[in-house]
Amino acid sequence: MNEYRQKIQKWISNNRPKGTRLLKQLVQEKSTQGHEGSSQAIIIEKCREMGLEIDIWEPGGTALVNHPYFVSPREKFKGSPNVIGVLKGSGAGRSIILNGHIDVVPEGDREQWQFDPFAGEEVDGKVFGRGSTDMKGGNVALLLAMEAIISAGIRLKGDVIFQSVIEEESGGAGTLAAILKGYKADGVIIPEPTNMKIFPRQQGSMWFRCIVEGRSAHGGTRYQGVSAIDKAIHVIRHIEKLEMRRNARINDPLYKDIPIPIPINIGKMTGGTWPSSVPDQIVLEGRIGVGPDEKLEDVKEEFAGWMASISTQDSWFVEHPVKVEWFGAQWVPGKIDLNHDLMKSLSTVYKEVKEKAPVIEASPWGTDGGLFTKIGNMPTVVFGPGVTEVAHYPNEYIVLDTLFEYAEIIALTLIDWCGVENVS
Amino acid sequence: MNEYRQKIQKWISNNRPKGTRLLKQLVQEKSTQGHEGSSQAIIIEKCREMGLEIDIWEPGGTALVNHPYFVSPREKFKGSPNVIGVLKGSGAGRSIILNGHIDVVPEGDREQWQFDPFAGEEVDGKVFGRGSTDMKGGNVALLLAMEAIISAGIRLKGDVIFQSVIEEESGGAGTLAAILKGYKADGVIIPEPTNMKIFPRQQGSMWFRCIVEGRSAHGGTRYQGVSAIDKAIHVIRHIEKLEMRRNARINDPLYKDIPIPIPINIGKMTGGTWPSSVPDQIVLEGRIGVGPDEKLEDVKEEFAGWMASISTQDSWFVEHPVKVEWFGAQWVPGKIDLNHDLMKSLSTVYKEVKEKAPVIEASPWGTDGGLFTKIGNMPTVVFGPGVTEVAHYPNEYIVLDTLFEYAEIIALTLIDWCGVENVS
Fold first, then answer.
1. Sequence-ordered list of residues with C-beta below 8 angstroms from that of B10, at least 6 positions apart, any chain
2. What string of H, E and C letters represents the secondary structure of A231-277?
3. Alpha-carbon gap, residue A287 to A344, rounded angstroms
4. Would the pLDDT of A23 be above 70?
5. Taking CB atoms and an 8 Å limit, are B268 and A271 in contact across chains?
6. pLDDT at residue B423 is higher than 70
7. What are the φ/ψ torsions at residue A45 (nearest 5 degrees)?
């Protein structure tokens, strides 16, 4: 391995300016949902330059949009292609998918950004901008790892399938389309921003809406009404109990240091129309975490049953049951065995490069990894160079040193995992 | 009195169709805020027909809009006149103001109305429509009472000042303008929909807004954030304690059967922007009831102090104090002595006509009566024929029998209060 490592290190070290430029270019193309085309064009150009076999297509069709795991606010993806670049192996080696999403979340309130979120400013060894950490930095590192191998003249045995997908931030329709198109490998790595931690567990999630009824009255005689706020507080307390119940079942040691492995978050609370009236409706919207071993449907059923049971505590809910709706995004949970070869390979290389053992943790959020696991039946690890804390926030950035170190780890993992053809 | 009573009764009985038609016409003109002109045109025509001295003006000017009790979302009232019609007395009698507002609240969701809210449908002795009960029915009854006296050839000693004002539903700028213009009388009757109860106390009210902060985090690690919903629930509980404290101070026997004499109602609760994020802000909007003996400023001060004290229970509020704002409408509380001559006069006549004692209660809401009491220093009674329960609601109606009975009581009260010139 050492002979390869020196070559890889040297190539990456020499090509830092090139990698940094690629990242900046990608950040400068604002690839929010529906606007991924220009970023993908840069990826396509890079894959061409590297001599990869390229597949470009706009997802769609009934097999995709009617799939039970399809979630997106849109059904047509014109101008939003998936891009796949394959580095063909010589054969007989283990294949791998390196999957990164090209879509980014909106920048939010620009006033809160120190720099233009789409300028790709480089300051003190960091590149700032929306998508730098989540996850264009990771994508660039994947491409650098592959290019380092090619440039070093190393011929891998297994295929390396690089996927630049759309729609991860909206529930994974891009990755689902790639799986349905038949892309398959012996393992998957996704460079979501994990602060270089290795995540063999991914929390899934779904969005729910609870509609809670009250009965209106004039505020001056509020005792003649029933406040939907009071009833909604009852519902919130009931949900907290469900959260406790659900988390008490989690006994995977990877979760032992996590205060709430699969939290239920109430993110929005809205209701009432007039300060002088007793509110007759409150709408709660939230996210329920889904454990790696759970099925989305089972969680929905448990939630509905729990909500129905509230009427045994307060008879108001007999006549006015809480209405539960599932809406918007969902992320499928995922899991890989801790002793899986991909975990071993990645951990060994990590230790070699970083001279310390990797932190292995359960992920508090979902990624496209769940789709690979549940739909594609492919063992998947989430591991990336981005900074968890700044993803989706103003002043998002990535540390360039980490990005290049990550590229080295990936290159060496590919060598270990896919195997190298002896060129004698 | 009996000789007058027969004449009055007869005239009212003969003129029921005319009175009913006037009410329907008024309901058919949708006089929501800013659209009072066409309803007032009908009132003006009626006052002309009755030979009253008429004063019509669009309120405005710095004395009004800079007045500490001025509350309105607008400062200009073009097309929204106040109308006053005076039945001059012969002199030496007690004068009275009969004050009714011409503005109505919006009809809300039309789907919930059995009839068109602006058709003035008459069914089973009731007239349906927005404003029928609150309070065009009352206004029509006042005019009928005056017309009955005129038509019966009864000459009163004191002036009867009929006021058809705008803006009651938005905080009383119409009545405030009439007071500031110099209209003054020895007593005031306001025919708000009291179900024929006599209200010598009026609860005032103000609207407050509490802005409660949290700290955002991803829902998958919600324990890293501080939910503004949780903190807002704490604030709501704290407000409930203030309500208990404030109501414990009320010892007026008129409130003894009222569960909460001066309630605090939370009417709206809004916050959070994303199901998967811990909400970082919740806005509560509500109405605080103000006791008849309280000053608005004192209540504001007590509320602010109480909100500041929450930090002694939860240190979060030390760094993140609840922001309190006062906004929108306010109604000044009002009170008249139970032994005041106007109360005696009204009660005596009521007993004579209805053959039972009137129900005398404290009003759970504010009216323009507070302005008459606090700014105009005029003793005011709220007493009207409308149906309390349907005010501001779909399918608002008034019972015609009650309206005409009320007109009789008012006519006889005017005779008693203002005195009659002996026509020998």
1. none
2. HHHHHHHHHHHHHHHHHHCCCCHHHCCCCCCCCEEEEEEEECCCCCE
3. 33
4. yes
5. yes
6. no
7. -60, -45
Q: Which helix (H) or strand (E) holds B400?
A: helix B400-418
Q: Which amino acid is at B392?
A: H
From chain B, pick out residues whose CB is under 8 angstroms from the CB of A387.
none
Q: Domains in chain A, ordered, with CATH?
A: 2-202+333-418 (3.40.630.10), 204-331 (3.30.70.360)
Please give, rounded to a whole number of angstroms, the shortest distance from the CA of A269 to a CA of chain B.
6
- Averaging pLDDT over each range in A185-189, A254-258, A275-279, A290-294, which range is the top one? A185-189
Decide if A279 and B259 are in contact by the 8 Å CB cutoff.
no
Average pLDDT over chain B reads: 95
Q: Which residue of A has its CA nearest to B280?
A: A267
Q: How confident is the model at residue B392 (pLDDT cuts 50, 70, 90)?
A: confident
Cβ of B269 within 8 Å of Cβ of A266? The answer is no
pLDDT digits (tens, 9 = 90+) for B187-211: 999 999 999 999 999 999 999 999 9
Structure tokens at A407: 């590229």
Amino acid at A343: M
Give, for A350, the enclosing helix (H) or strand (E). Answer: helix A341-354
Which tokens is B142 given?
Answer: 């006042």
Name the residue facing A267 among B223, B275, B328 (closest C-beta): B275
Q: Give percent of chain A with pLDDT exceeding 90.
A: 90
CB contact (8 A) between residue A265 and residue B219: yes
Q: How far apart are CA B401 and CA B403, in angstroms?
A: 5
Query: Chain B closest CA to A346's CA: distance in Å?
Result: 25
* CA angle (A300 as vertex; A271, A371 as ends), nearest 5: 115
Q: What is the mean pLDDT of residues B97-113?
A: 93
Residue B168 annotated in active site: yes
Q: How far is A41 from chain B (nearest CA, A)?
A: 31
